[in-house]
Write a structure and sequence with these properties.
53% helix; 5-stranded parallel β-sheet; alpha/beta; 3-stranded antiparallel β-sheet; 26 helices; 746 residues
Length: 746
């Protein structure tokens, strides 16, 4: 590129009747810099032109003190003079008027002398502001060239300069399918990864596989009882989730004195037998309120599960009735796995990987793929647990486990978080850490590690591979996540501010409740099927109304993409800490703010471009599209298309960076990532587009009657087709940030 002060711009050029430029030797102006923020670059150009005048007027002032131009709705851009004037004890409104008069005179003088117009073409004072109008043809040309040359990377920048980020998301228990709550986690994490990559981060998506713990041991125990005896008759992760629900219920029944085999026999005998067994069981625990409640609850859950999974339960109960203590057996299995017993590894890994295979099928439906799967068990096997524990035990805030604490009972090892916060002088109360901060328990009284400790170990592992860690987690886990980050800083001060979590609120169902114990969830797979059913009905109706005949392949492809897009938009269109009330009717509405609405309006734009291409084919009534070199950018003279450029095309990169690169505050404050910003941006963009080329908007392509009457303004048509292509590219790029593939037809 030429240095900024030596760039040349082209005057408006003449075109022939078919919209082609007549010969010109004037150099094409430089487009915006690839992987830079075009809006900021445009405002920098404005600053440079204005600074040349300010430097002459105030020769003693440093360039850094000059006011900066900003985008505003009142003008193309403006400069505020209040601060500059205040430091010089000047009246800011008077200064703005003086600058406007003198600078406009310079602009007029250059124009009268035949000099090439710069970025600024006029200015006027408005109170303490200097409002400026820009050279529209020049800005349009630079923008359209940039969009065309950068294509799918337009809007991407190198703002982060390759900063390494690990985003841990999904991390669902590997013994159940994904439900709607998991799916919000998935969408936030995957979308954030795409935003950060677009800003120049080296972002990796990690799935932490929690393959240790009581739930996993119970599921593995059930898996060993069923795997060789019964072929799965449902999706594998659903199958394994049902096993866990059944085994957990059987364990809970044992805890209240009920033998699962007896209840199974009673169920086979009939309702009277079940009622009799319940009365006997309640009598046995009379006076124990907790156990009485347990008997009533788990009798109900068992029968509910049996109605849905009877075939599986008949097989499972053949073995379960022989297990005296399910909890103990599951614990033995867990211990064998932690100790790397080959036979236990074979069981656990087969069960966990089977479940993850089903989970990945669901993730693939929504276009999500992790870069790495990290197994919790391997933290111990590779020695990381022992290494971190050695460091932790040398901390002044580590309190070891004991078999008899001051209350005479066993107590696990913990970190004195309150003492650490006080000694470090961290803020307590509003905006800081809570008062009487609870300890962080890391070991059981027997010395075995707790999952909270393993979370710390995994966080250090992630830190060794990155410059920043972001964990996507439900707001219910805020305190737990805060403790982990605080423990990292306790053990290594350099870890302060290296790990943050992004909280999100729950998804509320319009009907029903989710229950893992009952094996009842609003499953991501079932929800997709429900969405697709509704979308197919609506799409089929639209095609019939239009009289369009589409192939089965296209219909399936479109309805799949619209269905997944509806889900993604619904989960990302509100701020993370806003609770979502999930309503299928609303998120599939083609007339309201939704993914179907955005896709439908974007395909209308695609239709305009396609119609032009069909009518400009050899033998068609329209001339073929000229190159960007031959576009007459002065023809883009409608205020609506100028607003689309300034409000959406040029700020696209800024919007992405603002969403993905908020300031990183001092803990415990959390950064504010704008996960809803792209949805808002696209919704407003397509609404503005509807007003631009709709019935009351600009006619982009001439109708046949106009051609019959001698229509000749092909230059304006070509300019606007190129503009529509740029608008479409920006929308497509925004959709891909949401993991939504743009559609050509709908």
């Amino acid at each position: 590129r030429r240095p900024r002060s030596h760039r040349r711009t082209r005057r408006p050029f003449a075109t022939d009747a078919r919209g082609r430029r007549r010969g010109s030797s004037i150099m094409t102006p430089t487009a915006f810099t690839p992987r830079a923020d075009p809006l900021r670059e445009l405002l920098d150009a404005v600053d440079d032109e204005l600074a040349a005048y300010v430097r002459r007027k105030f020769p003693d002032e440093a360039r850094e003190s000059f006011p900066r131009a900003v985008r505003t709705k009142a003008a193309d851009c403006c400069v505020q003079w209040a601060q500059f004037a205040s430091k010089r004890k000047m009246n800011p409104a008077a200064l703005a008027m003086e600058v406007a008069t003198e600078f406009q005179a310079e602009l007029d003088a250059r124009a009268n002398a035949g000099e090439t117009r710069g970025t600024i073409v006029s200015c006027a004072a408005a109170g303490v502001y200097l409002n400026m109008s820009l050279n529209r043809p020049k800005v349009f040309e630079m923008a359209l060239r940039s969009v065309a040359s950068q294509g799918e990377t337009f809007g991407h920048t190198d703002a982060a300069k390759g900063k390494r980020v690990i985003i841990e998301h999904t991390s669902s228990n590997p013994n159940a399918p994904l439900h709607i709550g998991n799916l919000r986690n998935v969408m936030i994490g995957a979308h954030l990864a795409r935003l950060m990559k677009a800003c120049g981060h080296d972002a990796k998506e990690a799935f932490y596989v929690n393959d240790l713990g009581a739930q996993i041991g119970l599921t593995a125990l059930a898996y060993t009882r069923v795997y060789d005896k019964l072929e799965p008759y449902m999706k594998i992760d659903h199958w394994i989730g049902a096993m866990y629900a059944v085994m957990n219920t059987c364990q809970e029944l044992q805890q209240v004195g009920v033998k699962p085999g007896d209840l199974e026999d009673a169920c086979k005998a009939g309702k009277d037998a079940v009622d009799a067994l319940m009365q006997k069981s309640l009598a046995a625990v009379a006076g124990d309120e907790k156990k009485t409640k347990g008997v009533e609850e788990y009798f109900d859950i068992y029968q509910d599960l049996r109605e849905r999974f009877e075939k599986m339960m008949v097989v499972m109960l053949e073995d379960i009735r022989t297990i005296d203590d399910i909890k103990v057996e599951a614990g033995k299995l867990n211990l064998a796995y932690e100790q790397q017993e080959p036979w236990a590894i074979k069981i656990f890994r087969k069960m966990v990987c089977d479940c993850l295979t089903g989970v990945q099928q669901t993730l693939s439906t929504y276009g999500v793929q992790h870069d790495r799967f990290d197994f919790e068990s391997e933290l111990g096997w590779e020695g990381s647990n022992a290494k971190v524990l050695e460091i932790m035990q040398n901390s002044d805030y580590y309190v070891p486990q004991t078999q008899c604490n001051d209350k005479g009972v066993p107590q696990g090892a913990y970190l004195d978080m309150s003492g650490f916060i006080t000694d470090m002088g961290f803020k307590i109360g509003k905006g800081g850490y809570q008062k009487d901060y609870p300890p962080l328990y890391v070991l059981r009284p027997d010395g075995s590690t707790l999952y909270t400790y393993r979370d710390i170990v995994y966080s250090f592992k992630k830190a060794s591979m990155s410059d920043l860690i972001l964990n996507i987690i439900c707001s219910e886990q805020d305190l737990a996540q805060q403790k982990v980050s605080l423990a990292m800083a306790m053990m290594n001060p350099e870890m302060e501010g290296r790990q943050y979590h992004l909280s999100y609120d729950l998804v509320k169902l319009t009907t029903g409740k989710m229950s893992g114990r009952r094996g009842r969830y609003l499953l991501a797979d079932d929800l997709y099927d429900d969405l697709k059913t509704v979308i197919r009905e609506k799409m089929e109706k639209k095609y019939k109304e239009k009289g369009e005949d589409v192939s089965k392949e296209m219909f399936d492809e479109v309805t799949h993409e619209v269905s997944t897009a509806a889900m993604k938009y619904a989960l990302l269109s509100v701020s993370c800490m806003t609770q979502i009330n999930f309503d299928i009717a609303k998120i599939t509405d083609f007339e309201d703010a939704s993914a179907p609405f955005i896709l439908y309006n974007s395909t209308r734009l695609t239709s305009v471009i396609r119609k032009f291409e069909e009518r400009s084919a050899p033998g068609g009534p329209l001339p073929e599209l000229c190159s960007l070199d031959d576009v007459d950018y002065t023809k883009l003279d409608d205020d609506r298309e100028w607003a689309l450029l300034l409000d959406f095309v040029l700020p696209f990169a800024s919007m992405i960076c603002d969403s993905a690169m908020p300031p990183l505050p001092k803990p415990p404050a959390l950064p504010s990532y704008g996960m809803h910003r792209v949805c808002d941006f696209l919704n407003m963009f397509v609404r503005a587009l509807s007003g631009y080329y709709g019935p009351a908007g600009v006619r982009i392509l001439p109708v046949q009657s106009q051609l019959d009457q001698g229509f000749t303004d092909f230059a304006a048509m070509h300019a606007r087709v190129h503009a529509c292509k740029a608008f479409k590219q920006v929308i497509d790029n925004g959709l891909r940030l949401l993991m939504i593939e743009p559609l050509e037809r709908m």
